Amino acid sequence: MIDLSDRFCGALLGTHVGDALGMPVEGASHVSIRTHYGQLREMLEARMGVGTYTDDTEMMIALAESLVQKGGFDGEDLARSFLENFNYQRGYGAGTRRALELIRSGVNWWEAGAKVFQGGSYGNGSAMRVAPVGCLYHHDLVQLREVAFESSVITHAHPLGQEGAALQASAVALAINSDPARPLDREDFLSTLLGQVSPGSPFREKLEAVAELLQKEKKPPVEEVLDRLGNDSRALCSVPPAIYSFLSHSEDFEEALVFSVGLGGDTDTIGAMTGAIAGAYRGKGSIPLRWLHALERGRKGADYIEELAIELLKIHNKIISGR
């Protein structure tokens, strides 16, 4: 059995690994990636160096730091943490930058996100960072969903942005709660996820599409996956392909990541989310050492992320013990 510390480390480091693997080809089509690399299995040079992360991992770090500092969710502190960690070079999206600018100017954390894009962003910016929520509350999917929604509203207040964050956090939690020593019950996994989605949400149709793709006798071609699930920066078109990437390759962390990045499009974020789920399922030990060794170090690099995961586990233990 894999212990929880390995699962927590796997989820957070998996985010970093998927982010770093996908960043250099962000925006490329699946055809372009296949033409140039066949399958992308090695870390490439990126704008901040090989193995570096984007805003996906930086915001994940900020979220984990706040959860650890406050012993759970605190919206005001999380907004502070986002601002404190913000590094423009990491590649933040326009909506997130605008929301953080509003907060810095004095707008309340629970109001800023709704002022972006006339009702809030439905991008994947809150889903990409949510792995720490999935870890901390994996024992309570109701509370997990509430916290995921609240953590999303700071930058992504649109219902689809919030729903995407909750769905991704739930997938991380279910991965932690699954036994990798036994074949993964993909049907049960998806059924539980469907139970977490709001009635009438378009995410239900996407999860049903995931189920249909998984039921095919032969793995469907990438073109069909993209046609059914998408690969862009909308939460609706990036969380489902991340879930599919994991479920269709749950036996092997590397294969799940390689497939997810090979989809093209928003490769760093789809890779980060796939890495979070796959790492939560099989733990840090499932991540190829060559990828771990390639990750950036420094003040808030891979070693720090692993330390955060251990501290997050301590907070989880306090929560469930009632202390």
Q: Mean pLDDT, rounded to whole units?
A: 97
Distance between the termini: 27 Å
Largest sheet: none
CATH topology: ADP-ribosylglycohydrolase fold
Number of strands: 0
Structural class, judged by helices and strands? mainly alpha
Quick tags:
17 helices, ADP-ribosylglycohydrolase fold, single chain
Explained architecture:
This protein is an all-alpha fold and 323 residues long. The protein has one domain (4-321): Orthogonal Bundle (ADP-ribosylglycohydrolase fold). Helices cover 62% and strands 0% of the residues. The protein has 17 helices and no strands. The chain has helices spanning 4-22, 30-37, 55-70, 75-85, 94-104, 109-112, 131-136, 141-153, 159-176, 186-196, 202-215, 222-229, 239-247, 253-262, 267-282, 289-294, 302-321. The chain is globular. It starts with a helix and ends with a helix. The model has no long low-confidence stretch (mean pLDDT 97).
Any chance you could write out the topology, listing elements then pairs?
Blueprint: H1 4-22, H2 30-37, H3 55-70, H4 75-85, H5 94-104, H6 109-112, H7 131-136, H8 141-153, H9 159-176, H10 186-196, H11 202-215, H12 222-229, H13 239-247, H14 253-262, H15 267-282, H16 289-294, H17 302-321
Short description:
With 323 residues, the chain is an all-alpha fold. The protein has helices at 4-22, 30-37, 55-70, 75-85, 94-104, 109-112, 131-136, 141-153, 159-176, 186-196, 202-215, 222-229, 239-247, 253-262, 267-282, 289-294, 302-321. It is 62% helix and 0% strand.
